[in-house]
Amino acid sequence: MANKTKTVAEIVRTIPDGSHIAMGGFAIARNAIVVVHELIRQQKTNLTLSQGVAGLDVDLLVGAGLVSHLIIGGGSLDRFGPNNCVNRARETGSVVSHDYTSLSICFRYLAGALGLSFMPIKSLLASEVLERLETGTAAEDLRRMKCPFTGEEYLLLRSLTPDVSFVHVQVADREGNCQINGPRWENEEQAKAAKRLIVITEELVPTEYIQRSPERTVIPAHRVEAVIHQPFGAHPTAVYGCYDYDADHLKLYVDHSRNPERFKEYIGTYVLGSGDHWEYLEKVGGLAYLEDLRAERLLGY
Amino acid sequence: MANKTKTVAEIVRTIPDGSHIAMGGFAIARNAIVVVHELIRQQKTNLTLSQGVAGLDVDLLVGAGLVSHLIIGGGSLDRFGPNNCVNRARETGSVVSHDYTSLSICFRYLAGALGLSFMPIKSLLASEVLERLETGTAAEDLRRMKCPFTGEEYLLLRSLTPDVSFVHVQVADREGNCQINGPRWENEEQAKAAKRLIVITEELVPTEYIQRSPERTVIPAHRVEAVIHQPFGAHPTAVYGCYDYDADHLKLYVDHSRNPERFKEYIGTYVLGSGDHWEYLEKVGGLAYLEDLRAERLLGY
Amino acid sequence: MTAEIHATEIMAAAGARELRDNEVVVVGLGLPQVAAVLAKRTHAPGLTTLLEIGVMNMNPKDTPVGLADSRIFYHATTWSGFLDVMGMNLHRGIVDVGFLGALELDRFGNINTTLLKEKSQKVRYVNGSAGGNDVASLAKRVIVIMRHEKRKLPAAVAHLTSPGFVNGRSRSELGLRGGGTHRVITNMAILGFDPETHSAALLSVHPGVSVEEVVENTGFALRIPKQLPLTQLPSKEELRLLREEIDPKHIYLGS
Amino acid sequence: MTAEIHATEIMAAAGARELRDNEVVVVGLGLPQVAAVLAKRTHAPGLTTLLEIGVMNMNPKDTPVGLADSRIFYHATTWSGFLDVMGMNLHRGIVDVGFLGALELDRFGNINTTLLKEKSQKVRYVNGSAGGNDVASLAKRVIVIMRHEKRKLPAAVAHLTSPGFVNGRSRSELGLRGGGTHRVITNMAILGFDPETHSAALLSVHPGVSVEEVVENTGFALRIPKQLPLTQLPSKEELRLLREEIDPKHIYLGS
What we know:
The complex is a heterotetramer, with 2 copies of chain A (301 residues) and 2 copies of chain C (255 residues).
Chain A: H1 8-13, E1 20-23, H2 33-41, E2 47-51, H3 56-63, E3 67-72, H4 84-92, E4 96-99, H5 102-114, E5 118-121, H6 128-134, E6 142-146, E7 153-158, E8 164-173, E9 178-179, H7 187-193, E10 196-205, H8 207-212, E11 226-229, H9 247-257, H10 260-272, H11 277-284, H12 286-291
Parallel strand pairs in A: 1-2, 1-8, 2-3, 3-4, 8-10, 10-11
Antiparallel strand pairs in A: 5-7, 6-7, 8-9
Helix pairs in contact in A: 2-3, 3-4, 5-7, 9-10
Chain C: H1 7-17, E1 24-27, H2 31-40, E2 48-51, E3 55-56, E4 78-79, H3 82-91, E5 97-100, E6 104-105, E7 111-112, E8 115-117, E9 123-125, H4 132-138, E10 141-145, E11 181-185, E12 189-193, E13 200-205, H5 211-216, H6 236-246
Helix pairs in contact in C: 1-2
């Protein structure tokens, strides 16, 4: 059995500038923060990011200036606030943002996952979302078509096949078989659409554990290039069944992200000022503090 | 909470002649035999059946003369033999059979499940499977198309939306939330493509059981019209984790199905000669015999 | 007791009453979720509630801060993903009601959740569509819950994120499957849409609110019927559920 | 010991040797499954084996009678469905090898699994495609395991279920993605396909089989190289695995 565990630093070194990276988070849940921080430490540039509903992961990467292009369905930090860095980048034009919807991003990944070069859809039509896409650089990813069977008008979406997808999961074995607890948004389609797939897991289990409930394997080992084992790897976002979002830290983040200078301070302190994720976890409060975020078994949060 | 449990006789009475029925079995596994027998007892006619890989369920219905049209990807009774009744009906022309492949049937259901009227595919091309479909009555369900993004040639498949789908599962609650243990072939897409969905379950569980592992709910309650509770409802086919296929009975079946007269005897004895599935189960051997087929917990068969 | 009832409580109860038993509802963050849970715990126990991230029939515990908060998907009966909820339910055409919020909504029920234009024409981006456009395109009817302010109800939205009846055209003319915006529930009134012209009409005002106030706070002309009913207030039991069980911390219902 | 080795054992071992470590293989019923399991337990421990019904990395226990037999999907690492295995793996283009059986195979590697024509031209239907056509259309290379009989290796198949190099045309000319039929492993020999003409060529004969016998039992002209190697026999360990662990009841390997 192959042991695919790698450190995040090793993996991030293999990501070329200009890559299209798909991020597996949703708002403030299961964001691959350990990878985001390392991408910032290694100062990758000119990245394209794609995601259904962007959260802290994308906001951090855009704020830190690594990103030139976004392909997203929307996003926010839920009640903690908007993605200030993403919105500022849109406003200043420092990032080209192709703004889709949750389902259209999911369908673009689905096409990629199925090896289809396109997928039809019945949303987006008659909206300014589509008008902006069709009159911008996204035009090459969109076509109109009438169904040859029903005559109904469809929008055709070009498939999305990211260079690499990072998905944060609760459980994986060393070969890469993964279980995801709680809702999975577009993780499965995104992971299987990508050319390279890296998973970050809270818990490493023996393959025997996977074999006890093979119905739960959402991502199979042979699709996975590497497994990064990092407990609290999604902090300050939530991982169902493992730990809650860190409300205090998210407030602190949003407070900083409203202003570019203060955002730089945040990055300086928490990301560049931490050699790795363990140091970051010490900095945000350490063991006793994190234990307080741990999920209550019965509630899952 | 709605209690959707119904008897098989009640449900089958609501199926009009001429319906398009999707069967959820695969070869000799999880065939909804309890429904098949009742359809034969109530002498439904002119049915269209669709399925990925047809097994005993379809062979029985075709042999009993209920079927005028098949839409299938293939089929057999594995090592026990071919679907003799299906093959005979093809040879005599008593059934119009649209013969697809596993994936193309799955994609047709997927389109139906997603509310898309068509789905592209890259198999079937350059085969006599396609040639026969395109030169027959299936032509209206098929078109060729070039991908507007890549120029690649695709076959477009029309969606399949059966009037009713019957899926045999291991676990359901009274509202219709279902878990399927073991591989699921095209059950999810087929179930969600159908206009009406009836599940047959080996075990009825309280909803609290479903809520303990919501990731396992492959079919959600609101899609389900009725739940038929019938232990050993798939006999003589296998239900993973519940019971093994009945090799002796399958041999007896194949022995009868080779010849139309002997097939009639089989139907007379086991189907028409049994008032309901409990009587059938007594006839094939009763409790002690069936206990012998029960799955060994650790092995699952 | 009426005086004590908060407008958001009227909105939640009105939202709940728009839902019929056994319907399938896609719910967004905040008041829509509160309204759906209220309906389910009162007259619509057979309601199926869906969250786009892949949740069915959640039984929220404590007060969730968003869709990705496990408090909202507690004790659900299904955890799946976008493809299941938004593809195999919404796009499949079996969602009766889509329950949305809005930054802006115009007279034809078009919704903006993407950006705001300041007087200087400077653009301020907000969250974008997420599932909003998909829901508005595909649900059989759409119910919007939002604050009633003139700038939030303009003649035309600053960005048409999610289509209602664009330029007053019918849904089939627009090539859209869903039924479009059906109700707008605000802190002052309930609006509907004329079946012919597809433009907004006043259906009821909340007790204590005058028609003039509504008109003053609406950025487009409203059709106003001669007989204008008052919006039904939440019952005691509805108030108890809202205050004690569904949003005890008053995160969504104000205080 | 050679004399005791059954032809099906040579076939299984030859099939196993066509697989490289870390490849992804879709396996059909019977000898293909036996060959893949043998490869995984010898030189290719990193092999990923897929069954179309939705199984990955099965570790068969006892001898299964078919894909839907839980003995074959025992202790797998994934149980999913067609959409995952055939859609998100095979159609996605990441399946290296498709391992198929055949009723008939012709000189261009086209496969028939649908029907047989009797001399009277009467048609006898058999199983049809199931996943066979999909695998032949999409896998990077296809390996067929079948009995070597003149009627099973005709100049043209009675029904072209699964395309190899139809009419000797290249895969891209045919609009197909996969690499087409790569090897045919029979009880007498191993065949390959000429990269230019796409017609069948003899690659090796099994020990004890003459070239004449092969030619006599083949319904089309075979390209025969001057230096014709013998097929490598199964090793002692391979035989032990086949006989004691993988097919102890000799259901697939003869007796």
